[in-house]
């Protein structure tokens, strides 16, 4: 029966496309659309999408040669599975009518109903609602893909698909709703997360730590990167796409988008150079791998702060995040935690540093839409405490929620490959392919 379940699922989805054709068009709604904003958001949507293939290269180059295809496919498959899920009810879970400020009503935009015409999202009134939904989809795609670096080289592909679906429904969607929906509990508290510090990076980072602990160590824990050139290509694609990730979160071609683009660039550069110098300070050679990891850590850390801080403070965020993540990577290597590609030290810790430093450096002069207040640097404690509360709550929810989902997945389909398949390599054992 298990063998035929995927085919049955496809038939159900096909049937839904006929039952719910999504043809509502409310002509009574007056359009406030701005063609410049629409053009920028179309571009931003494409930029964020390119980040997932970029992540595939970034991770794929770091693993052993016998696991490159499997690792890269774990990112790419998110593009097809999460897109279908999002179109059916995923967007509704994240941005539908609020159910207690924790999750959206899955029926609100079921099968993307009511999205044609002049309908728009209340916080992005100058672009069509459907464009907003497609933009947010790209965040939903890359978030579970980020986790894959933690359990690379030892997870069964079929089981991974189950986990990524469960994670998207029960971890990502509630966090997106709570943080970015006007009726969400974190939004109402005044939590500032411009582009995904809690929703994307912290959730993925804590899920990565849970995965590394649950799946335990690899049988062959030696680390021999297959293609460092892949890592460099992936870094370039990620940095390129991050302009859509952060600057696109302004939801328009405006001054805020320019600010987010500038702070993203400077934070990433500062983190990259800091990682190099910090390694040299400890007697290590400046490496291509370290430069790339540092640049990505800077992008992670600036994500929640991008539209709330100035350029000088973005430099500080990049420098601080690089040092902290570098130290956590060093600590992790001395433990029994086998986070294969250091997802938690880089994305989880980077996201947490970014969230806290948003509470330190946020300035209402940068973004008047910040109604919570200035940060600790300007003598105010309220925002910092709010950010700290969000950090703790998100960490607990993401870690323990992911651990539960891993257990459920393991009960449905064993998560780990056999020792023989692991030694053979996942490219051959899981996909019958090789470089």
Strand order of the largest sheet: 1-4
At the first level of CATH, what is the class? Answer: Mainly Alpha
* Structural class by helix and strand composition: mainly alpha
Distance separating the two termini: 33 Å
CATH architecture: Orthogonal Bundle
Mean residue pLDDT: 94
The 3D shape can be described as globular
pLDDT < 50 runs, ≥5 residues? none
The helix/strand order is HEHHEEEHHHHHHHHHHHH
**In the CATH scheme, what's the topology name?**
Ammonium transporter fold
Report the CATH superfamily: Ammonium transporter AmtB like domains
Count structural domains.
1
Total DSSP helices: 15
Taking Cα atoms only, what radius of gyration do you get, to the nearest Å? 21 Å
Largest sheet geometry: 2 strands, parallel
* Total beta-strand segments: 4
Helix content: 55-70%
Q: Strand fraction band? A: under 5%
What do you see in this structure?
- The chain contains 15 helices and 4 strands.
- Strand 2 and strand 3 (103-104) form a beta hairpin.
- The mean pLDDT is 94.
- The chain has helices at residues 5-19, 35-60, 68-95, 129-147, 157-180, 185-189, 197-215, 228-247, 255-281, 288-302, 311-333, 343-361, 382-412, 419-424, 426-431, and strands at 25-26, 98-99, 103-104, 116-117.
- The relative contact order is 0.14.
- It has a two-stranded parallel sheet. A two-stranded antiparallel sheet has the order 2-3.
- The two termini are 33 Å apart.
- It has 435 residues and is mostly helical.
- It has a single domain (34-414), classed as Ammonium transporter AmtB like domains (Ammonium transporter fold, Orthogonal Bundle), CATH 1.10.3430.10.
- It is 65% helix and 2% strand.
